[in-house]
Design a protein that fits this description.
alpha+beta, about 40% helix, 7 strands, 7-stranded mixed beta sheet, globular
Length: about 170
């Protein structure tokens, strides 16, 4: 009888250990999952503001000392200069440039004491003869800073630009 009770107690201890480990793992991953959700939402907001030519929204998202590094055009800074470049697309009527994040490429990593690092791939589309067509792709690294509870984009690296295959 005591042997059976010992086996049951060992079994109960094993189940408890597994449950505790599972809860600990869930608690550890929850902040990163939340961080990923927050940064994904900021990515969506950023490119919606860009597509809609919403200067006020972009000003809220970009830090004043934003630095934008591009493998074709080089460094653009500060925020006002980056905004001029983005708004130039708005002035080009009929182009209809759209950007889409490749969801499964999105990586978000905490940057302790500062914010987060976002790494992803994205593709670009334009209206060509009234039809939306993919025209290119690129990779990005965004450095986000949490300032007074709000996310601000501090640094952008946009690289590995390629034209879409014909």
């Amino acid at each position: 009888m005591s042997k059976r009770r010992g086996i049951h107690q060992l079994g109960a201890l094993a189940v408890t250990a597994i449950l505790v480990a599972g809860v600990a793992r869930a608690q550890e991953s929850a902040p990163e999952d939340d961080l990923r959700t927050q940064i994904a939402a900021m990515d969506t907001a950023l490119f919606a503001a860009s597509r809609n030519c919403d200067e006020a929204a972009m000003n809220r998202i970009f830090r004043e000392d934003l630095e934008f590094y591009h493998d074709v055009t080089g460094l653009t800074e500060p925020r006002e200069r980056v905004m001029v470049d983005i708004m130039a697309f708005c002035a080009d009527d009929g182009v209809g440039l759209r950007r889409a994040l490749i969801e499964d490429s999105l990586e978000v990593h905490p940057l302790p004491g500062f914010g987060a690092i976002q790494i992803a791939d994205h593709v670009f589309f334009e209206l060509v003869d009234g039809q939306e067509q993919q025209v290119g792709s690129a990779r990005l690294v965004h450095i986000w800073q949490k300032v007074d509870g709000e996310w601000k984009l501090a640094r952008v690296l946009s690289y590995d630009h390629a034209a879409a295959a014909p």
